[in-house]
Every structure is written in structure tokens, then in C-alpha cells.
């Protein structure tokens, strides 16, 4: 029983992790938060679910479509809320992306209705019995795809020229620009990547819960922000660990305490982290004003 | 020597493993102009940051007039009399020249609910008149209503000093006051600092320009690689072999 | 006065109060993304006191303001030590926490809310707005107001001038929360029914939009923004159906064209805000 819950928790954490990574990529590249990323994930999930129910194409096709939609929306948000918004007003991009999120939710409810939508099961015949716990087909798919994307992102950032460019821009955009890194294109790439991750996370979360709702975007953003606080703003590995931690906490709370306490315990954790270690459990002192 | 007004003892500071200051001592006598010199990267600005409270030292103490201020924030050191300027000028660019000086008086102005009273009333009238006089002294009266960011560089430097003096400091810390100034401005800087000293102010000045240093300082401390190399009257110190070696590498 | 006109004045007045309250925090350069939390705290505090304890509304409003101010002070104290990005995250998360707590608290009706609050009158609302305006007129001409502007301009320079920046910013945040709490109390006693949903993210965005549309440089800019945006949906019915999309796009367009708002100086140096994350600002060792 416990092993099963631990596994479920890590699985939930793995999907959280994707969105949190998306947020952190943008924070790294621009020191900004894209508050529309949760809604991006929601839109991808709704469209993905629509393809799954309305067409006979295999799941991987709908998944690819969801990630593409996510990447496309994130690029659009980049142009609307970041590219042409003056850097002198740091909160302007947050406001603007919140506006984008509002529009995305409204458009989805107007176009597809505001009801919850069922996400069909995948690989429903498969069931792995590993003794201590069992893994359903859908869980297997989630685990594989989430791991693939996280590891893929890691390899991309560490081993490829474009990944190196992203890390250079994160570290110091001005210096990277002077060294000939095409900063604007790199930033565009990070937005696209963050959207792809968000889109994947949206559909995979929908798969885990068997449903998506147009109002999920907001919850997704909220969860991602809490992960970022716990893991440390801009810290990629901190984000991964915090996502897994929060996934575990949520699942275990629902299993052993009560469903109503699920979010509350995470809030308490966030509050404690902010008071005791404001730089995040795994972060360095990024973001903490030097107020000696 | 009598008990110094400002005493920095055995201050050590590391930045990510690099030693910026290694057990540095500094004694500044009241009413003197004290120069801190050294090549780039010697730790001069870090020392100033430690004294003004922007950088907490790893070890060591900062004592002002017998009071240990090592753990105080910069804003709490201002009312005690430690006020600084910045190497790259930090003005309130969007506020007017006069407002900048008024803000410099903040630590001496009314607090609590009374800080909501309009600026032109009561005890504030005296401070306001004082601010106007200070603008006149620094040749800024014509610009009083202009935004600080619109001033030419030299005047911004003047304004920053006017704002610092508005706090009525005991010790004024100047971080490269002559950098970026025209030759003419530099010439007017020397008598101004002397004037301040004659009025009883203690000045600590970090500076590259050896002319400025040898003209205004009563005492000079030389830093190199975060250590105090030597210390003494300017004529003697600047002529010493150690200092020549540190600067010229010969 | 017809009841329609009265309702319009009440709605507009409360929204102006919300915008003015928000402006107080913004005058120090600190943007909250969850001011609805303070609105909800004020609304529920006052409603509990009037409905369950039969307190008179004005006294309950004072209690609402004080409770919101305490919450604002605590959140401000936690968040304002950190960078602006953290402030955004913390206020956003806090408003959700408040929402969650209220919707799970049976004493206040949980998700279905409370009802039976009445008593918001035109003189009460106008009186509150006048009080807030009076405070802001004083603030704009005082040393405290100057200190707010200084913190907005450059925190380090403000520290160098001896401004106790954390104390001033937290004070501004708490005052802002208090005004927002009072507005929440008034709103609850106008609407007669309150549910946690009323204090959700849409309302949070509306408050910011009121303030930002008019321009953050002068407080009356915020008031004008609030008046304009509250009147539009009253006189243009179709807006009610489409307001999310219209207001969302308005945000996007405004931030590209005039991020400082419609009123106020343009260009660099107008309303410069400090950099979000000062970590890149390395001290030179030289």
C-alpha cells in the first residue's frame, strides 16, 4: 500500500516537474515569470484530449500535437507579453502574461464549454505487477514520457550548442550577447521549450486524473509557483526535487489523512520554507535582496 | 594618537572563496581626511562597503566613536553618522534635485504619523531652507526642479555629495569622488573636501587619482590584494618602495 | 436617487477604494498579485461581526481594516525582504491559501458562502473614499510619500540616505491591505451574499488593472482607471459576457504601449522600477 502510494506520488511529482522546469527556464533566460504557462498547459491538455476522443490516431500523435500546441502558445505569449514589453517595468510582463492566461481560459470555455472533459485511458490492457506495487498502462506512459523529457532537457542543456547558449544567457545575457550568442533567438527557444514541457505536463496530468477542465490552468500555475519557492527560484535541480517532494506530499496526504488537507499541507510547507530558507531548500541565495 | 573616531579591526571578507579583505585594520582620526588607495582589486570598495554596512564582514569589527556598529544595517548607520557616496552614483533619477536632497535629510526628519504632515510645515520648514542653501552651495539651485537623471554627470556627482551631507554625517565615505570628473571639477573638489574637514567633518576617501590623494589627505592607507600594505602621512607613504612596487610592479 | 444610480455609485465607489488601496503599495514599487486576499479577509471579518455578533457596520469595517492590515503586514514582512518576483509569487499563493481556507471553513458557509449582510450606503462609501483620498493627498505631499517614491526609484540609494526601507515598505503594504479590507467589507454588505469565488484571480486582476490603467504615478490616475473600468460593463452589456477576453487583451495591449499607465510621464526615468533579481549586481572588489 505504502509503496503504491509512494510510486503514485513520484509519478504526480514527475508531471509537476515538467511545468516547474518550464517556469524556471524562462526565469533563467529573462528573470521573468510567464504566468500564462499554466493556461498553456491547460489548452494543450484540452486539445490533446479532444484529438484522443474524436480521432482514431495513436496516443503519441495526440501527445506530440499537445506539445506542439504548447510550444506555439508559449511563443505567442513571448511576443505578446515579453518581446515588446519594456524591460524597465519588470512587473509589466507578469501582468501581461496574466492577461494572456485570462484570455486563453476564456477562449477555451467559449469554444469547448466550461465542463470537465474525460481523457481516455491508454494502454488499458497493460498492467505491470512489481510485487510491492502495480503500474497501470497509463502510469507507464506518464513515467516514460516525463522521464524522457526531463532527461532529454538535461542532455540538451548540458551537451548541445543551443543548450550551452541557453545556459550562457541564463548566467549573463549581456556577456553572452557580447560573445556572439544570438540572445533573442535563444530566449525564443527557451519559451518554445517551456511551452513544450507545459503542454506535455498538461496532457500527462490529464491522463493521470482521467480528466481536464478549462480551469486547471490556474491550479497548474499555482502548483508550479509553489514548487519554485520550495526548490529555489531559477534552480533547475531544486525544481525537480521540489516537484517530486510536493507530488509525494499531496499523494500521501490524500491517501492517509484527508483530501481537503492536500493543498493546505503544501501551503504550510511553502510558508515554512519562506520563513526559514527563503532562497529555497535547494537554491543558493538567488533572489534574496542583500539587506545586510 | 587619541582614540580614533572610526576603527576597523581585523576585517576579513571572502567572496566565493576569493579573499577580498584579509584582517584589514583602519583607524580614522576625527576631523581628518583619510585616503584609502591601492591598485584595482585591492579591496578598497569592499572596505567601504563593510564600513557603510552594505557587506557584512566574515570576521572583524567596525566601531564608530566607541560604539560597535558591525551588525547594523546601512540605514541604521546613517543616523549614527556614517554616510557614503557610490562609485557609479546612485541618485533617485526620477525625482527632482531638491527631492534628492530632502531625502538625504530623512534620518533627521520627523518620523511616525507626523511624517505625513505636508513638507512645507512646522519643523520641516527649517530643513527645507537648509536643503535650498545646500543646493546653492553646490551650484544646483537652477536645477532644483529638474529630474536628477537629466543632470550632466559632473552635477550628478555634486548632487550625490549634497545629498550625503544633508544627513549631517560624522564620517563621510567617498567612493572615487573624482572618477569621471572633468579636470575643472577635480580642481574644485579638493578645496571643497578641505572645507568640510575644517568644519569638523571626518572624510574617508577611496581614490585612484594620486594628485587628489596627496593634496587632500592627512593620512593614507594602502591596500594590496586585500591586505594593508602600509599606513602613514601621504608624502611618506606614496614615496615608499613597497607602494611603488605594488603600483608599478617594478 | 434611483436604486440603479445608487447601485452604480456603490459599485464605482468600492472599486475606487480598491484601486486607491492598491496604489498605496504600488507607490513603493511593490506589486501584489493577490490583493483579493485582503479583500476577502475584510469582507469575511466584517460579515461575521455584523451577521453573527450584530455589530454595527462601521465598527465592523474598522475591525475588517485592522485584520487585513495585520495580514498585510505579515505577508509584507515575509515577502518584501525578497525580490519582486518572490513578492509576486507569495502574494499570489497567499490569496489562494485564503481562498482555500474560507471555502473549507464551515463556520462561514464554506464554498456556498455567507448571506444576510446589508447596510452599505452611499454616504458610507463616499465617506470612505474621501478618507482614503484625504490620506493620499497628505501622503503625496509629505516626507513619507517622498520616502515611498525613493524606495520605488532605488532601494540601495534609499538605504544610503538612511531610509528604513523594509519598515516603510511593510507599513505601506499594511496600509494598502487595510484600505482593501475596508473595501471588501463594504462590498460584502452591498452584495448581501459572499462566496470564496468572488475573491478569486479575476478580481485580483481587476484591482491591478484599475490601478495600472490609470497610471501608477499619481493616485488619482488609479481612481480614474477604476471609474472607467467599472462604468464600462454597466453601460455596455455585452462586456459582461466578454469581459475576460476584453480585459485580458487590454492588459496585453497596455503593457506594450504604455506600461506606466495612461496618465503620467512616459519614457525612461518616469516610473523606473528596481531590477527584479539583484543577484547579478555584483559588488566590485576593487
From TrEMBL, chain A:
GO terms for cellular component: plasma membrane. The keyword NADP does not apply. One of its GO terms (biological process) is amino acid transport. It comes from Actinomadura syzygii. The lineage of its organism: Bacteria, Bacillati, Actinomycetota, Actinomycetes, Streptosporangiales. The chain crosses the membrane at residues 6-26, 59-80, 92-112, 132-157, 186-210, 222-247, 254-276. It is a multi-pass membrane protein. Its main location: membrane. It comes from the Bacteria. This is Branched-chain amino acid ABC transporter permease. Belongs to the binding-protein-dependent transport system permease family. LivHM subfamily. InterPro entries: ABC_transp_permease, BCAA_transport_permease. Keywords: Amino-acid transport, Cell membrane, Membrane, Transmembrane, Transmembrane helix, Transport. GO terms for molecular function: transmembrane transporter activity.
TrEMBL record, chain C:
Signal peptide: none annotated. One of its GO terms (molecular function) is branched-chain amino acid transmembrane transporter activity. InterPro entries: ABC_transp_permease, LivM-like. It is found in: Cell membrane. Keywords: Cell membrane, Membrane, Transmembrane, Transmembrane helix. GO terms for cellular component: plasma membrane. It holds the Pfam family BPD_transp_2. This is Branched-chain amino acid ABC transporter permease.
